[in-house]
Amino acid sequence: MPINASIAVLATDFALAEAIAQQISDYRQFTAIRAIDQVSNFGADSTITFGTSVTLTAIAVEPYVFDPPQLGSYLSWGADFALLVVDSSQGLDGESIQRAQELSQLHPLMVAVTGLNSPRANFDETLAVISRVMDQRHHAVAITLPVLAESELSDESVVGGILDLVELEIRIPGPEGGSISHELEQGHYDLIESHLEALANAVVVTSTDESLIHSILEHGFESSDQLREQLLNATARREIIPVFAIADSIGLSELAHFACQMNREPWTPVHAHNDELLASALGDGRIRIWQGELSNGTYFANNTEIEITQIYSLKGAKQTKSRAGEIVKVQTKQEIPAGSTISSEKSNPLVINHVFE
């Protein structure tokens, strides 16, 4: 059964955040295999696997709906981690810097660099600015780079694909929404040497495994899987901030798969009973269930009584119940303000803060 993971998409331009969130949620490959239990022995195709799949749901977070203290808590936006969208053509503004600094202290954070088709955009410069504004505990490193191609409509170059620094291959859009992969040539390695060195350094300085550190320093990484695992773990520990190049739909697949593979531990208060309902209102009737079970009936949103009369999946199918990890839409007699904490007990002791991080 798929696991639901959610990502809060933040940008100073809400329309941009909403567009990126919709693209991620609609992307045809957004369901990925996280944990492989066994390899299929049926037939000759060894790529067929069984395991646990993760469905990634992206939620656009409007800056003026959630105040700064709420932005610092998983529970307020009902997400497992955050994606900060930075428009390279506009630069990094003060609000984005403040968000990045606050979120990186408390939660896993990823960055999507957009606007790369503008003549004013510069991915490396944007990455350097992100690195400078973060403290020494947080290492912003590129996971993908934009690959430029000649535009058919103008003399300017546009992003025609991405270079995956983990798998060391270039991917360009293929027919019917797929992608075509190319191995790197020596000239490519010369151009990306500094980025590969930054990835290795980030893993070394954030790892607590002495033998692994010595092995990497002496021999490099054993495989792309080893590098990816270390990057994922360090991101979950809030020590590495992975940065992705995004241009329209180019680069979304790499970002979505990385997010789905992350080992996430849902944030919930340790003093709440596990059988009690604890959920977050995401706006537009959407609710993220953190613990317990939701069914039709009476609950409390920030201690105000609400009546849930119907539950729907995000695809519109009616449900009688929903469980922890799900994001659903509900029908209520009263509007539930975005950011509200929903519980089965009026006197639920939950306080939205970071005490239980």
What does this entry show, briefly?
The protein has helices spanning 14-26, 68-71, 74-77, 94-106, 123-133, 186-206, 210-219, 224-236, 252-261; strands spanning 3-10, 31-39, 49-60, 81-87, 109-114, 139-142, 144-150, 157-164, 169-173, 179-183, 240-245, 278-283, 286-291, 293-295, 297-301, 304-312, 318-319, 321-323, 327-332, 341-343. It is α+β, with helices and mostly antiparallel strands and 357 residues long.
Describe the 3D structure.
The structure is a single chain. A 7-stranded mixed β-sheet has the order 2-3-1-4-5-11-6, with helices on both faces. It is built from 9 helices and 20 strands. The protein has 2 domains: 3-261, 3-Layer(aba) Sandwich (Rossmann fold), CATH 3.40.50.300; 278-343, Elongation Factor Tu (Ef-tu), domain 3, CATH 2.40.30.10. The protein is an alpha+beta fold and 357 residues long. It is globular, with a radius of gyration of 21 Å. The chain is 28% helix and 34% strand.
